[in-house]
Design a protein that fits this description.
This protein has two helices and four strands. By secondary structure, the protein is an alpha+beta fold. It has one domain: Streptococcus thermophilus LMG 18311 protein like. It has a four-stranded antiparallel beta sheet with strand order 1-2-3-4. The two termini are about 20 Å apart.
């Protein structure tokens, strides 16, 4: 994951929950952010966390899911160019959805995510 202090202009610091879940020494790798990618796109709430061997970024909007292009831009903002992050679709019985318009990106910290051959992607 990138050093997220580079994104401090988007960081939510007045939210007590954002501060409770992210200690100041962890700021480079976690936090709550409000991001508006352009004048025409709605504001996105982005939560970044790291723990249990995983980097995690959730992206939510009030009235719709983020688009592929929006998720791509968030991925570029939160992960380094050499990092692969994925969106998982778990089996239905294991799926937990607390927000209809929230998507998640995950990256294991100690493993390489297998990828199909370049010609398939």
């Amino acid at each position: 994951m990138r050093d997220l202090t580079e994104l401090n202009k988007y960081r939510v610091v007045e939210n007590p929950m954002a501060r409770k879940r992210c200690l100041p020494e962890d700021y480079p790798y976690c936090g709550a952010f409000k991001i508006k990618l352009s004048k025409t796109t709605p504001t996105m709430t982005v939560i970044a966390s790291t723990g249990g061997g995983w980097d995690h970024v959730s992206v939510s909007m009030r009235k719709r899911c983020p688009t592929w292009e929006e998720m791509k831009k968030i991925k570029e903002m939160f992960f380094r160019p050499d990092e692969c992050a994925v969106e998982y679709h778990p089996p239905q019985e294991e799926n937990i959805s607390l927000h209809d318009f929230c998507l998640h990106m995950w990256r294991p910290q100690n493993d390489v995510i297998p990828m199909p051959p370049e010609w398939m992607v």
